[in-house]
User: What shape does this take?
Amino acid sequence: MDYETVIGLEIHVQLLTQSKMFCGCSTRFGAPPNTQTCPVCLGLPGALPVINRRAVELGLRAALVLHCTVHPTSQFHRKNYYYPDLPKNYQISQYQYLEHPPLATDGYLEIEVDGQRRRVGIRRVHLEEDTGKLVHPEEGNVSWVDYNRSGVPLMEIVTYPDLRSPQEARAFLLKLRQVLQYAEVSTGRMEEGTLRCDANVSLRRPGEPLGVRTEVKNMNSIRSVERALAYEVARQRELLERGEAVVQETRHWDERRGVTFASRSKEEAEDYRYFPEPDLVPVEVTPEWLEEVRRGVPELPDARRDRIMAQYALGRYDAELLVQTRATADFFEAAVAAHPSPKAIANWMLGEVSAYLNEHNLEIEQLRITPAQLAELVRLVEDGTISGRIAKDVIAEMLQTGDSPRSIVDRQGLVQISDEAALRETVEAVIQDNPGPVRDVLAGKEKAVAFLVGQVMRRTQGRANPALVQRLLRERLGLLGG
Amino acid sequence: MRITPEVVERVARLSRLELSAEERATFAWQLSSILEYFARLDRLATEGVEPTSHAIRVANVFRDDEVTPSLPVEEVVAMAPQAHEGFVVVPRVLEAEE
Ligand SMILES: [Zn+2]
Assistant: This one.
């Protein structure tokens, strides 16, 4: 008999702020260890936290985008535990505690899997601070701590257990990341840790109560979330089919070996002794403030897709692909602003550029070419400077080197030959060397014309203007007007 | 509850604080009187009284999202018992074990 997969996600998102949640230290990524700390984020006695207004507004923005109910009053709490990456011995977070709700609850995000639209419920959205980072050197029985991340603003998003497959979990994360990037809430980069995801997984017979779940951690890309969940679902299924029980535990994903394994974790069997943070006063969100936040939400993916379709007369399919990431949509619109040929620019982006990105596993932000250079390439084709065939070679070179199309065309002598006298000579030579096909043409076989055009193109390394070659050939063979 | 100098010593050790015998005696007395005060609060009837987390009705105290100078890293690591190339060094902790 079959089992139903039940997955819920817990996502931590770093909010796009300059400074930390409760102090003015920078949130810049990649700084040398412990260079972005102060008495507040080091938890020195007497230091007092003050809430970053921008972080609250970004949390509210996310809550709105996720269709959540924003609570008029919310409160920060202390989550107490001991670990070397936590200098205060408590983390400031928001907790459903007594009468205090978190920032926002009960929303949804719509995903599309196999053409089916589904709403995935959001249980809550709350604000908290990040902890420091531990490094475990090979040598010596020690660990190293860097507190630069301590106090960095995080938003935790918890879903209802609404996801029914690893593919749905992946689709949800892609959509969430897209929406948060568009809303400028977070950069959403799992590789930099600005988006992290833990998952609760269980299996059950359809219609029965939820089964025993495991929590899977340590997944470092959206792809690895899907792989880890697929592994964990298969593992639980095997246990259940053998008549064994699933143990409620935390399991770590091992990317290299492709397995999850049970781990002793700092969070097991802990009592966090939550209580209201006495150093912080409540956050009160008035309807006016919320309205102001709502007005500040940038254009979201669906709205941008619709606008791109209308403004540039593109089809839904193309527009959908162009808004996949905000950076892609920005690139497209910048190129169109430089040269208003939206259809041609979209074709290059969804064709050659996208194939290049896939092949090299790159993001559009890592492209060497600029939107203006792509626009220039389109212009060179349109004004007849180069042929469409040559343009494919030029863009390959542009993507490799980042050089401008004009300089590649000049350097490699790729300018299209539209000089009639020069082309006539080549046409003549091709006719002399191919008596067979010429006979075919004269006998009325149209296909043979294409063959002869191809021969001229080959002899000019693709630089001949094909329309002109066609006309010259027909003229020479007396086929014009016939 | 009475706090003895021995309890103070234990808590001080856990908190990595070094106290003199005189300080241990002082803190034992001060901590005891604090606990006695809270014991008095324990005896009050609080049914029907709403929990209070703040004594004053103030909300929305914020700062702007502006970067201010951090401490020099030398000053930060000087507070740690042990440091290495800017990192604070602690006894080995393992996050995940098989
Ligand atoms: Zn700080």
